[in-house]
Design a protein that fits this description.
By secondary structure, the protein is α/β, with parallel strands linked by helices. The chain has one domain (6-241): P-loop containing nucleotide triphosphate hydrolases (Rossmann fold, 3-Layer(aba) Sandwich). 38% of the residues lie in helices and 22% in strands. It has helices spanning 6-14, 33-46, 63-67, 94-97, 107-119, 138-146, 160-175, 194-202, 223-226, 230-238; strands at residues 18-25, 51-55, 75-76, 80-81, 83-85, 88-92, 125-131, 150-156, 180-188, 206-211. A hairpin with a 3-residue loop joins strand 3 and strand 4.
Length: 243
């Protein structure tokens, strides 16, 4: 007899008042998932939406660096309330590891993900943005198992190597009947239509491109300047698919 983890039903209760859950994913690391998910959260907030951001990269969380949120601490309130950074409700594994290295595998990873969703007490939100780890490991499999209203936004850079891994992720999500909103081509520095053509081949909407900005990290940790950065306008145009 298969045992049912009672935490799964608690997780469903935690997210029931979130209207849209968007996971930013890729088959490869270093393509800008954290940057795009964080900026999209800020842009949606500026539009007047209530937004949460969850960094679900257990091994390499980085959204807190972009938002300058590592000095904050969640509060207990019959669960754990996410920290608030310039109107964004933010949660990350760093608040439980003191930002120290985290080495886990198998069931340990699954338990950590389920526990994070179980204890996090989100407010009513219009959008919860999830910054995914790269690849198709336990985090992805657990997430699609416990979150039933999940939609994916895929991220790739312009290289064939990155797009090859994203293709595998897209095929897997289609097999699992997980909706794919579309793909964003990040760090674009050429006129090649390779990624756009590949999206047509995969029957995935090409949401647009975001250029490569060498000095982007100069804005990280300065929340008052992030939306003034040159990349912000491009991401806002790409994210216009969100009403």
């Amino acid at each position: 007899m298969k045992l049912i983890d009672p935490r799964v039903s608690i997780t469903e209760e935690r997210v029931k008042n979130i209207k849209n859950i968007l996971a930013f994913g890729s088959g490869k690391g270093g393509v800008g998932k954290s940057t795009l998910s964080t900026f999209t959260s800020l842009i949606l907030k500026e539009k007047g939406f209530k937004v949460g951001l969850l960094d679900l990269d257990l091994y390499g969380p980085s959204s807190h660096l972009i938002l300058d949120g590592d000095h904050l601490q969640p509060k207990e309130d019959y669960g754990i309330k996410p920290v608030e950074i310039d109107g964004i409700h933010f949660m990350s594994i760093i608040y439980f590891t003191q930002n120290k290295p985290l080495a886990m595998r198998g069931k340990e990873v699954s338990d950590s993900i389920i526990e994070l969703f179980t204890i996090t007490k989100w407010d009513d939100l219009d959008y919860l943005i999830i910054d995914m780890p790269p690849g198709m490991g336990e985090t992805l499999l657990d997430l699609i198992n416990i979150i039933k209203r999940l939609e994916f936004i895929l991220i790739s850079n312009s290289t064939r190597f990155a797009m090859e891994t994203v293709t595998k992720l897209a095929m897997f999500l289609k097999e699992q009947n997980i909706p794919i909103v579309g793909l964003i081509e990040n760090m674009k520095n050429s006129n090649s239509d390779f990624v756009k053509n590949k999206c047509e081949e995969l029957q995935i909407k090409y949401l647009g491109k975001v250029s490569y900005y060498q000095d982007l990290e100069d804005y990280y940790g300065k929340t008052d300047e992030l939306l003034k950065s040159p990349i912000s306008k491009e991401i806002a145009e790409v994210a216009s698919f969100i009403p």
